[in-house]
C-alpha cells in the first residue's frame, strides 16, 4: 500500500473529506518496527492530532487475523480502563488500524538512559496497571478475538516455549549436542507444574519495557494483540526478568510486593501460591524469549536481539540454580552449555 492509498483509506475511516485529508495536507513517515512484520506509519494532518497507522503484511492471512485481534482486544481493554491507545478506526478488508499516537519514548529508553533505580516509579505504575488489567479484562473477554490461541496452556508451553528454545537456540543457532530426551522430559514436567496455575485472567504475553510507552508522564501499554486468557504470574515475570532492562533482584522483590498489593484490591489470591507459580512461569518465559532472540538474530538477521541472548541465559541460569528449581538439572546443564558456546563465539 503506497502513501496515497494509505492516506485515502485513513481519511475514509476517519470520515474526513478528501479536500481536507489528502497527499497535500497529510504527512506520512514510516517507522522502524522491532521484531514485527507489520508496518507502522505516523500520519500528521492539518488541524488533526498525529496518529499511528498499522498495517499487516500484504496477502498474509495470519497477519490479517493478528490485525483483527489488535482491534478487538484493544477496544475491550479500553472499555475496562486499561491504558492502551485509543483506536480511531479499523478496516477489516486491509487490516489497517488507526491509533492514538503515544509518542516515541518507551520505558526501555528511560531505563537505558537513567538506569533501573530512577525508573522505579514507572515500574510501580506498570505493575499496578498490570494487576488491574489482568483481572478486569478477563471479565467479558471473548477467546474468539484471539488470532493465535485462545489460552496459554500446557500445549503452548511445550510447542511455543520449550521446543522453541531447544530448536531455535540450542540446535539451529548454537548447534549443541545435548541429552535431548532428558531435557524434553524436564520441560514436560515444568509445563505440567506451570499449567496448574489458574488460567482465566487476561494475559498480554509480551509485557516488557519495549511495549510500555511513557506518554505525558503516564505508562501506556501497546502490542497487546497476542493477548489471551492465562495465569497471573507470567506477565509480571516477563517485565521483571526482562533482559532489556536487567532489573536488580532487590527492585524485583519490591515490585512483586507492589503488584501483590494492587492485586489484593481486585481479588483474593494467596501470595505463597503466587510466588510458587511465579518461579515456574518465569522459567517458561525465559525459554520463550531466548528462543525468540535466537530466531530473530539467527534467522531474521536482526543483530539487535543477539546482544540480549547472554543476559537472558544468565538470568535463566540463576533461576535454575535456586533450590526450588533443583528438579531441572538437565535444563540447567544445557543452559550452561549455551552460555559457554556463546562465550567461545564472542
How would you sum up this structure, described in words?
The chain is of the alpha+beta class and 346 residues long. The chain folds into two domains: 3-100, Phosphorylase Kinase, domain 1 (2-Layer Sandwich), CATH 3.30.200.20; 107-345, Aminoglycoside phosphotransferase (APH), C-terminal lobe (Aminoglycoside 3'-phosphotransferase, Chain: A, domain 2, Alpha-Beta Complex). It is built from eleven helices and nine strands. It has a five-stranded antiparallel β-sheet with strand order 1-2-3-5-4, with helices on both faces. Helix 4 runs parallel beside helix 8 (249-264), helix 9 (271-298) runs antiparallel to helix 10 and helix 10 (309-320) runs antiparallel to helix 11 (329-345). It is globular.
Secondary structure elements and their pairing?
Layout: H1 3-14, E1 26-31, E2 39-45, E3 51-55, H2 61-79, E4 87-91, E5 96-100, H3 107-114, H4 120-136, H5 154-173, H6 180-194, E6 201-203, E7 212-215, E8 218-221, E9 228-230, H7 233-240, H8 249-264, H9 271-298, H10 309-320, H11 329-345
Antiparallel strand pairs: 1-2, 2-3, 3-5, 4-5, 6-9, 7-8
Helix pairs in contact: 4-8, 5-6, 5-9, 6-9, 6-11, 7-9, 9-10, 10-11
Summary, kept brief:
With 346 residues, the chain is of the alpha+beta class. The protein folds into two domains: 3-100, Phosphorylase Kinase, domain 1, CATH 3.30.200.20; 107-345, Aminoglycoside 3'-phosphotransferase, Chain: A, domain 2 (Alpha-Beta Complex), CATH 3.90.1200.
